Amino acid sequence: MSNKPKILVARAIFPEALAKLQESFEVRSNQTDQIFTPAELQKELSSVVGALVAGSERIDASALSGAQGLKVVANISVGYNNFDVPAMSAAGVMATNTPDVLTDTTADFGFALLMATARRITESEHWIRAGKWDQWSIVNNPLGMDLHHSTIGIIGMGRIGQGIAKRALGFGMKVIYHNRSRLAEVDEKACSATYVSKEDLLRNADHVVLVLPYTTENHHTIGAKEIALMKSTATLVNIARGGIVDDFALAQALKTRKIFAAGLDVFEGEPTVNPELLKLSNVVLAPHIASATEKTRRAMVDLAIKNLHAALDGKKPPSLINAELFKV
Ligand code: 8YV
């Protein structure tokens, strides 16, 4: 029996990171990456002092019900809608996430998805693969929408939203945004961004990009009513969270060409994708990969490990969410 503290690593991580953890902890790892059922997760958490998890692990009162010794759950993710933070605080469990290290990578991806969507890149590739190149014509190619000198509307103007705005400036785009609260003047200036209501944003943007966190209030921020306000030439990109968009309403709107196209990295009920979306050619689909570069995923794992170590060493984790739990 080891007398090292026992931790859980609920999803597969880089082998070097796992080896480093094994120097300090007795590690229950899950390198097969088979997602735990809620009952399995509850059992796993009952015997550890810390856990590294991802968005696939829901940490709520039920998951914590047997976890008497648990001090910290470190999310390998900046979004933490998989955490019931009040329930974690009530159980005295520190909650941490991985901000900053993924900002630029995720903003790059948001822009890449926007470009692929507006310029119909995946559809064009399918054209080639389907042997349609001989149908090339001035007027009959997959004709797209311009990004340069168009208006981008960003809903959710945190670190990643601001990163996308700065990239848009390089394309000569006009930036409008909507956020829970208006940015400080200095931050608005850095992005040349104009604050507008959600409705004005939807009416005026050529490209709408969603980067807001998922909360109950943000559920279906974009549904049929909101899509009806958008230009018929507009694109919609969701790199935020499944549930921010009503995927069924979006599929109907894309089918009837109420809007031009959509790019989706996140889905309601993922990894399941609404079958209506799968039938459409004017949607670009990605499997939740906005942060997925090797460098960034390693940085996310490293930050999660730092958070875990700090919490178990009695120090304040660098990205503690429920800060009230750290008493100096
Ligand atoms: C993660 C993400 O890959 O950080 C986030 O909020 O959505 C992604 O970077 C995903 O959540 C895995 O946990």
Total tally of structural domains:
2
- Biggest sheet strand order reads 8-7-6-9-10-11-12
CATH architecture of the largest domain: 3-Layer(aba) Sandwich
Distance linking N and C termini: 33 Å
How many individual β-strands?
12
Q: At the third CATH level, what is the topology name of the largest domain?
A: Rossmann fold
Instruction: Give the fraction of residues assigned to helices.
Output: 25-40%
Strand % is 5-15%
How would you describe the shape?
Answer: globular
Radius of gyration: 22 Å
Could you report the average pLDDT, rounded to the nearest whole number? 97
- Unreliable runs: none
**H/I helix tally:** 13
Instruction: Give me the secondary-structure category.
Output: alpha/beta
| CATH-assigned homologous superfamily of the largest domain | NAD(P)-binding Rossmann-like Domain
Q: Report the order of strands and helices.
A: EHEHEHEHEHHEHEHEHEHEHEHEH
Largest sheet descriptor: 7 strands, parallel
> Which small-molecule ligands are present, each listed once?
2-keto-D-gluconic acid
CATH class category of the largest domain: Alpha Beta
Keywords:
Rossmann fold, globular, 12 strands, single chain
Characterise the protein shown here.
This protein is α/β, with parallel strands linked by helices. The chain folds into 2 domains: 6-99 and 294-325, NAD(P)-binding Rossmann-like Domain (Rossmann fold), CATH 3.40.50; 103-285, Rossmann fold (3-Layer(aba) Sandwich), CATH 3.40.50.720. It contains 13 helices and 12 strands. The chain has helices spanning 15-24, 38-45, 61-64, 85-90, 103-118, 121-129, 159-169, 185-191, 198-204, 224-229, 247-255, 275-278, 294-312; strands spanning 6-9, 26-29, 50-53, 72-75, 94-96, 151-155, 174-178, 193-195, 207-210, 235-238, 261-264, 283-285. The strands form 2 sheets. The chain has a 7-stranded parallel sheet with strand order 8-7-6-9-10-11-12, sandwiched between helices. A 5-stranded parallel sheet has the order 2-1-3-4-5. Helix 8 (185-191) links the parallel strand 7 (174-178) and strand 8. Helix 5 packs across helix 7. The longest helix is centred in the C-terminal third of the chain and has 19 residues, at 294-312. The chain binds 2-keto-D-gluconic acid. 2-keto-D-gluconic acid binds at residues 54-55, 76-79, 102, 291.
